[in-house]
Design a protein that fits this description.
Elements: E1 3-7, H1 11-22, E2 26-31, E3 54-57, H2 63-73, H3 78-84, E4 86-87, E5 92-95, H4 97-110, E6 114-118, E7 129-131, H5 139-149, E8 153-160, E9 163-165, E10 175-176, E11 187-192, H6 194-206, H7 234-240, E12 266-272, E13 279-282, H8 291-298, E14 309-311, E15 314-321, H9 323-326, E16 332-333, E17 336-341, H10 351-365, H11 377-386, H12 412-432
Parallel strand pairs: 1-2, 1-7, 2-6, 7-17
Antiparallel strand pairs: 3-5, 4-5, 8-15, 9-13, 9-14, 10-11, 11-12, 12-13, 16-17
């Protein structure tokens, strides 16, 4: 009999559990919630997503879309569930968080080969173990990991964006539109003129922020205060320069008012949080402002004067291991080959990438340890996690991972199409072999 323990029922742990159970393994899956919650989680659902509800684009001409296609070809378990519980978001795969979490939990609890136990694990069980506890690994388990790997541990902080109630948004000011009218108008847009934008940036720069120690644990004496670039707080982006937001998360290009045709100087987008569209996420507004300051500053935006906040933005510690120094090629530890690491703890960044990590660990345990080709996003992410490098940092899907095309292409779209075609052809051949 093949037995395994998985600690953590997040995206990576749930994917690994389903993959292994479907292949005949007896899986014991531990999850500490709701007995012990984290600073970011709100439910006891398996595979709860805590920041954005978007799994990013499905277009194969984007790195995230290409990665999804590769994973589907490899038999991913969670992506089909996500697609069943999607909410309108243009070309992106955005999900109803609650519906997705409930569906994954039902799948886990009903599987005949999975024993689901709600309990915090702080010491390592005997036998083969996958740790997939994510960026908010508890202090007790982190201490156990440090005893195993020494000081090969790195940290950064992560930030999440606020959510507002749909019925508190002024639809006379905020309009529906997808950038350049590509696809359905699934986003709400807050247009700002130059004066409104300048006032907003100044308010962000002057806003009171949480101090780092409010989110640290006494367990850590020397924590590095830095952010993964894709999760940088909006006030930190504003601090970098007046135009930073306008050329980034608040880019107004392609978001003209569909009635007046007026072009906004800058624009903030809102994305539906659930199927019923009763809640909206402020895209790119991850923040470490105090709750009072979030309420005050964000209510200065046109159409949000009476906004009701269903969730405030926040920051939390994000923990990951220095994989290239301590992993074997199958994601087991060099110092303990019975112990495997999956998910963000392994050094991937992003929802889909975390699912991928759980799937790859499961496939290695099933004897499929051959790496996909270098021309695939999957293959390059795998290599990033295990091949030696200086200053290892978490990585998400991006075309910069891929080797150059044999024949250079100047047109950006055609270049991405060529990347996608090459990748999927290589992946099909790899899977056939």
């Amino acid at each position: 009999m093949k037995n395994i323990t998985i600690i953590g029922a997040g995206l990576a742990g749930s994917e690994a559990a389903l993959q292994l159970a479907d292949k005949g393994w007896n899986v014991t899956l531990y999850e500490m919630r709701p007995r012990k919650m984290t600073p970011a989680h709100e439910t006891d659902f398996c595979a709860e997503v805590v920041c954005s509800n978007s799994f990013k684009s499905e277009l194969p001409t984007t790195a995230g879309g290409l990665l999804k296609q590769e994973m589907q070809a490899m038999g991913c378990a969670l992506l089909p569930i996500a697609q069943q519980h999607r909410v309108p978001a243009g070309n992106a795969l955005a999900i109803d968080r609650a519906a997705f979490g409930k569906a994954v939990t039902r799948r886990i609890e009903s599987h005949p080969r999975i024993t689901f136990v709600r309990k915090e694990i702080t010491s390592l069980p005997a036998g083969k173990v996958i740790i997939a506890t994510g960026p908010l690994t508890s202090d007790g388990l982190t201490a156990t990991l440090l005893q195993t790997v020494g000081n090969e541990q790195l940290y950064f902080f992560d930030a999440i964006a606020p959510i507002v109630s749909a019925d508190s948004i002024d639809r006379n000011v905020i309009y529906e539109k997808t950038r350049y009218d590509k696809g359905n108008p699934d986003y709400l847009n807050i247009p700002l003129n130059r004066q409104q934008y300048d006032v907003f940036v100044e308010a962000l720069n002057a806003g009171q922020k949480h101090e780092a120690h409010e989110f640290e644990s006494d367990f850590f004496d020397d924590i590095r205060f830095q952010f993964y670039e894709n999760c940088t707080p909006i006030e930190e982006l504003a601090r970098r320069g007046r135009e930073t937001l306008r050329y980034g998360v608040m880019r107004g290009v392609g978001l003209e008012n569909p009635i007046t045709g007026e072009k906004p100087y800058a624009a903030l987008q809102l994305r539906a949080e659930n199927t019923d569209k009763t809640a909206y996420n402020l895209v790119g507004c991850q923040t470490m402002l105090t709750y009072g300051e979030q309420k005050r500053i964000l209510r200065t935006l046109p159409g949000l004067e009476n906004a009701v906040f269903l969730r405030y933005g926040s920051i939390h510690r994000n923990t990951f291991l220095n994989g290239p120094h301590i992993f074997n090629p199958d994601f087991s530890l060099k110092l303990n080959p019975e112990l495997f690491i999956a998910g963000q703890l392994a050094g991937v960044e992003g929802y889909v990438e975390s699912i991928l990590s759980g799937m790859l660990v499961a496939q290695c345990l099933n004897g499929n340890s051959a790496m996909p080709p270098e021309v695939t996003i999957t293959g390059q992410l795998w290599r990033h996690l295990i091949l030696p490098k200086n200053n290892f940092q978490p990585m998400n899907a991006n075309f910069g991972l891929l080797p150059a095309l044999e024949t250079p292409i100047r047109d950006k779209r055609k270049k991405k199409e060529a990347f996608a075609h090459r990748s999927m052809e290589a992946m099909k051949k790899f899977l056939n072999q």
